[in-house]
Amino acid sequence: MPEERTRVEPGAGAGADAVDQPALPDLSDIEAVNNTIADVEQVVLGAPRRYTSGQVADLVGVPLDEARRLWRGLGFADFGPARAFTDADVAALKHLRELTESGLLPATVAAQFVRSVGQTMARFAEWQTEAWVEYIGNELTGSRSEQVVTTAGDVMLELEPLVIYAWRRHLAAASSRAMQGLTDQQTVGQSLAVGFADLVGFTRLSRNLEEAELGRLVQTFEDTAVDVIAEQGGRLVKTLGDEVLFVTFSPDSAVELGLRLVEAMAEEEILPALRVGIAYGHVLSRMGDVFGTTVNLASRLTALSPKDAVVVDRELAAALEGDNRYELHPMWRRPVRGLGLVEPWTVCRPGTPIPQ
């Protein structure tokens, strides 16, 4: 008997062709689950898996080892001799080969691009899928399997242009920051204010929360941090569950950002106290992350910070001298392993109590 099929239309403005999807049985059946997974995968990939890695290498015109290296660079596992690749995989490797052969990008730079795309997209895909699966479980009714496949197609069609748009906007902003930081010594390193914001007592608190409550807490923390950092013109480097890492070009913008974070988090009843540590100095940037002594110092200052406070290093405190928007209060000097004697300062708004 021919398989019954349903028609899935793209969302408004998607500008893509409709996709035929099979109407599958209920997800309570293990076989049905596997069938649904296969159908969702085909919707997302856009084509069936038809090539082995060796066939892909032959079609692209590169040695098999090079094809596998590029594939691993994107963050994907080797599939061995299985027919695991689509026409899109062939096209992607051809683009990479042409990019390097044309001289537009050196092979070493292309390899960095490949790794950065793989790491970024892997996290984005996990994040997006978690939200989508939660929605599927909580909101959808009726024939679950059919709705899973339908929703996968619609979500992909609507999000794909948004991903390209966001990438271009962030690329423009990053390019502007890079040009702003240019020096005669090239951009191997630059001076930045680096800050960590950490939820106090998160580990202990997380043990007493249900998973759903913990998820809401982390989401509220990340959402609030993202909003404040963007509002203050900083850059969110990464989130670490109960901690965020951010950078700014100027010391005063970093301090204002840190104080705003403390104030914003205090307005959220679900969140515990926050502590912020900020250091200013030479920073090495690689693959969107930041490294160096300044980063390590900012992390250590966070650990020294009282609750609902912002603590800065001596260099940043000196840069704020005479700025009547802030009050600086010295803390005890103390030795820190690997960094020597550290001189932390607490920063407050004028007239506010000194955090203890």
Automatic annotation (TrEMBL):
SMART domains: CYCc (SM00044). GO terms for molecular function: adenylate cyclase activity. Signal peptide: none annotated. Pfam families: Guanylate_cyc (PF00211). Residues 193-302 form the Guanylate cyclase domain. GO terms for biological process: cAMP biosynthetic process; intracellular signal transduction. Coiled coil: none annotated. Residues 1-22 are annotated as: Disordered. CDD domains: CHD. Belongs to the adenylyl cyclase class-3 family. PANTHER family: ADENYLATE CYCLASE, TERMINAL-DIFFERENTIATION SPECIFIC-RELATED, PH-SENSITIVE ADENYLATE CYCLASE RV1264. This is Adenylate/guanylate cyclase domain-containing protein.
